[in-house]
C-alpha cells in the first residue's frame, strides 16, 4: 500500500547492496537462569530467514520445530543477530556450531527455565549503509534529525504485505470463500496482513490530515514504552503530554468488539472500516479482538554519518514491531 511520507525530501539512494549493508541486532533484557529445560542460543545469520534457521536448529537438536522459540522474524537479505531457544529437558545439544549451515553462526549459549516467546524483545538496533545517494543532503539530514527528536509514523512495513501486496489479496480471497489456507502459519500471515493494512489506512489518513502526532477528540492514547492505553476524556494536559512524547495517539488493530475511540477519532476509524468491510468481517470471524497500536514511534540513538559524497552510515534503535524501511521511506526514496 502507499504511505504518505512525513518529509517530501528530494534524496535517493540504494539499500541492501550487500547483506552487510543491512544489519539488525536484537535487543533483549532477559536474565539467563543458567539452568532449566531450554537451551538458548544467540545466532548470527546471513541471507537466511528466521523460520528456516529455526527448522535447522530443530533438525540438529532432534526436536519438533514447535519446540524452537524465537522472539520475532528478522530480515532475510541482511546480517541479523537474534536469540533462539531449544526445548531439550535433561540434556544439552552438543557441537551445535559445527553443524550449522553456511551463513549461520553460534555466538552464545545459555540454559533457561522458559521458552523464548514471540514478542519477548525490547527492540532492534539497525546499522545501515546507504549507497549511490544523490539529492538534497541537507534536507535528508534535517529529516533524520526531526524524526529523532519528534518521532515518526509507526506504519507497518511493506514486507508485512508480501511481494506486490499478495498477502492482502490472498486474505481477501480467503475471506470471500475462494480458498482456505491449509497451514496455520499461512493463516496467521494473512490475518496479520489484513489487520496491518487497516491500521496503515487509519494512520495514513491521520498523516494526510497532519494530526497523526496530535490528540484529536476521542482519541485513545498509549503511554511511551508501554502497551497500556486510555481514552481521552478531554483532560486539559493531554496536548502537552502528547507534545512531550509522554503519550501517543493510537489506531485500531481490528477485531471483535466495539472501538474504544469516541467523537472525531471514532468517526475516522468507522469510515475506514466501512471502506474495508470485508477485511473487518474476516478478522472478526477468525476470532481476533480489538487492540491498539501507537501511531507514533520514537527512534533512539540515531546517528547519521556521511562516509563519502554518495555513501552514508545510519544507525538507530526501534522498538519491537517497528520498521527500519519505514524510517527510510519517511526521509527519502531508497530502493534495494
From TrEMBL:
The active site is at 75 (nucleophile). GO terms for molecular function: lyase activity; RNA binding; tRNA pseudouridine(13) synthase activity. HAMAP family: TruD. PROSITE patterns: TRUD (PS50984), UPF0024 (PS01268). Responsible for synthesis of pseudouridine from uracil-13 in transfer RNAs. InterPro entries: PsdUridine_synth_cat_dom_sf, PsdUridine_synth_TruD, PsdUridine_synth_TruD_CS, PsdUridine_synth_TruD_insert, TruD_catalytic, TruD_insert_sf, TruD_pseudoU_synthase. Belongs to the pseudouridine synthase TruD family. It comes from uncultured Thiotrichaceae bacterium. It catalyses: uridine(13) in tRNA = pseudouridine(13) in tRNA. It comes from the Bacteria. It holds the Pfam family TruD. It is an enzyme of class 5 (isomerase). One of its GO terms (biological process) is tRNA pseudouridine synthesis. One of its GO terms (cellular component) is cytosol. This is tRNA pseudouridine synthase D. Its EC number is 5.4.99.27. The keyword DNA repair does not apply. The keyword Lyase applies. Keywords: Isomerase, Lyase, tRNA processing. The gene is truD.
